[in-house]
Amino acid sequence: xxxxxxxxxxxxxxxxxxxxxxxxxxxxxxxxxxxxxxxxxxxxxxxxxxxxxxxxxxxxxxxxxxxxxxxxxxxxxxxxxxxxxxxxxxxxxxxxxxxxxxxxxxxxxxxxxxxxxxxxxxxxxxxxxxxxxxxxxxxxxxxxxxxxxxxxxxxxxxxxxxxxxxxxxxxxxxxxxxxxxxxxxxxxxxxxxxxxxxxxxxxxxxxxxxxxxxxxxxxxxxxxxx
Length: 226
Hints:
Elements: H1 3-22, H2 26-43, E1 51-53, H3 65-73, E2 77-82, E3 91-94, E4 101-103, E5 109-111, E6 116-117, E7 121-125, E8 128-129, E9 135-136, H4 142-149, E10 155-159, E11 180-182, E12 187-191, E13 194-198, H5 210-221
Parallel strand pairs: 1-2, 1-7, 7-10, 10-11
Antiparallel strand pairs: 2-3, 3-6, 4-5, 8-9, 11-12, 12-13
């Protein structure tokens, strides 16, 4: 697929996926949000002692602000992305209720002048996602540029819905896959063969999600404090 065809295809898919998401009822979105929150809390306990970047939800995206409140109460520092200029990496600034906000591109709020933060982890919304862990965003490429620019890459957890899954987004050399995807179904981890679904543990058992818990904490969060 040539560059022009790929751009047109992604635009069509993005518009379709957003339109379908906007038709989901608020009650259903809230039920999915609760399930995603639960999976994130259970699977990534290290988030509670991390510097966590999240995104202000738009157009029916997963709303991470509820989880952020829970994690801040346990010691996390939370931040939002800030667009500095077109075609440049984002920066992240500390955010919590009461932080002064301004309105940026797509009418998305961002912290106006709080302290800059280098995140340990990012909760990244996905309009679409595929079997390789590649994300269909809004087309500006901000997050790919940002991840490529950081001296130490944070763990990147894509947050999305099962309905947004595609066979492929036709990734290009500049596209960067996420480490995990969390949907209302549960947790997927990127392995050499693609995104592997990790079943929830049996009640009282130690299987299933014990693996990503160890992986996330030991590899990305050990010794990190806000």
